[in-house]
């Protein structure tokens, strides 16, 4: 199902969209706008998923043991050393 909507574009946006149509990349200005909205939807969903994953990771870490600064530094140095060894550095 499609919905007709009136959209205002700046002169620069209109020129860009028309240039894409003239180049044959899109069949119409409407198709350009639809693609732009689709990209924005995908980007928004990706950011929401990343935020949810980060929140879950933070919550998981909050439930785990607390590391003091020295212990944390030792663990980080060990991870860095392992990665360097993995790459032969």
Q: What do these coordinates show?
A:
This is Antitoxin ParD1/3/4. Keywords: Toxin-antitoxin system. This protein has helices spanning 11-22, 29-63, 69-86. The model has no long low-confidence stretch (mean pLDDT 94). The chain is built from 3 helices and no strands. The chain is mainly α and 89 residues long. It is elongated. The longest helix is centred in the middle third of the chain and has 35 residues, at 29-63. It has one domain (11-87). The termini are far apart.
Attribute tags:
89 residues; 0% strand; ParD; toxin-antitoxin system; ParD_sf; Ribbon_hlx_hlx
Biggest sheet record: none
User: Percent range for helical residues?
Assistant: over 70%
N-to-C CA distance: 57 Å
What is the number of independent domains?
A: 1
Mean pLDDT: 94
Radius of gyration, rounded? 24 Å
Task: Quickly give the structural class.
Answer: mainly alpha
The coarse overall form would be: elongated
How much strand content do the residues show? Answer: under 5%
Number of strands: 0
Multimerization status: single chain
């Amino acid at each position: 199902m499609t919905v007709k909507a009136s959209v205002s574009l700046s002169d620069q946006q209109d020129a860009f969209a028309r240039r894409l149509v003239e180049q044959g990349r899109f069949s119409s200005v409407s198709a350009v706008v639809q693609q732009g909205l689709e990209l924005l939807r995908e980007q928004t969903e990706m950011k929401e998923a990343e935020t949810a994953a980060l929140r879950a990771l933070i919550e998981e870490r909050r439930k785990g043991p607390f590391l003091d600064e020295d212990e944390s530094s030792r663990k980080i140095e060990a991870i860095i050393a392992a990665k360097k060894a993995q790459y032969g550095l």
